[in-house]
Amino acid sequence: MKGESPVNIDQNRRKIGFLGLGIMGSAIAQNLLKGGFEVTVWNRSPEKCEPLAEIGAHVVRSPCEAVERSFLTFAMLADPAAAESMLFNPDGAIREDGVLNGLSDEKGYIDLSTVDPATSRKVGAAVSARGARFLEAPVSGSKKPAEEGNLVILSAGDESLHQDALPCFEKMGKKIFYLGTLGNGARMKLIVNMVMGEMMIGLCEGLGLAQAAGLEQEDFLNVLDSGALANAMFRLKGPQIGAGQFSPAFPLKHMQKDLRLTLALADEIGLSLPSAAIANECFKKARQLGSSNEDFSAVYKSLV
Ligand code: NAP
Hints:
By secondary structure, the protein is of the alpha/beta class. The chain contains 13 helices and 9 strands. Strands 1, 2, 3, 4, 5, 6, 7, 8 and 9 form a 9-stranded mixed sheet that branches. Helix 4 links the parallel strand 4 and strand 5. The N and C termini lie far apart (45 Å). Bound molecules: NADP nicotinamide-adenine-dinucleotide phosphate. NADP nicotinamide-adenine-dinucleotide phosphate (NAP) binds next to helix 1 and helix 4. NADP nicotinamide-adenine-dinucleotide phosphate binds next to helix 1 and helix 4.
């Protein structure tokens, strides 16, 4: 079992809320349950709660109820709009059955979603105004690392909450970074994904050109894997692309969202990022061609 055993943690602190049971949220919530935490779950589409209920999760009908029952509540949602929707209605008013109405005193709200720093600061300010604590903690690593508890956690914001969340983080991740001021977790995550998106375009173009030039894609991947360019992503995704397997571990629409947010961050700073801008256009094109809900490696189909 990874990390501190929750049996050593005060009963109240073992009560964890979890909002958002997509690819990542389901796997992480499952690890918390297996790790001995009492987990209360909520998801917009309620049927995704069923597998978690079968292994012991308590299911509730609103984010507010999950927060009320929990010492710490985690959220793992698609994008900035979804993250904000846990707190606010579309018109900006406080959501009646949302997170804010369940928060008090030393409770903590931790957003694992990949969002921009401004969204994180907005959510953080609203949570602090209720006297509660907020941490952003986007994660690096995809479906399999999430299932295996091997994520890399990029936490920033309230340091006391970071300390309180460590027993949970240790069930989710193999490496935990505390990056200081709120916004730094979001920035770090976006920059890492910018590099990943650009690497994926390079891999796809290489596979496409290898084939068009009369080489075996398998030979190309073996050559890549034998030198300084060897990496876990090429090793995993290369053969899947070659075999035309694009079932989503990291949905392509989320990769494009991350590049869009990265470019906005660079715009704010006034930094030119030509390769990231081209990568964003490639993923946008793939969305246009219908690959939004496929794995981000499906960008291959729009390039070759
Ligand atoms: P996903 O499978 O698409 O799940 C998205 C979740 O957000 C679902 O629970 C969905 O609810 C919910 N959601 C979307 N729009 C909503 C809204 N307007 N209101 C309420 N709930 C909403 O995505 P995922 O792969 O788990 O990714 C989740 C986050 O982690 C994203 O920010 C992504 O960028 C980031 N991330 C993903 C990976 C990865 O490899 N997959 C790795 C690292 C980080 P429904 O079930 O009702 O649709």
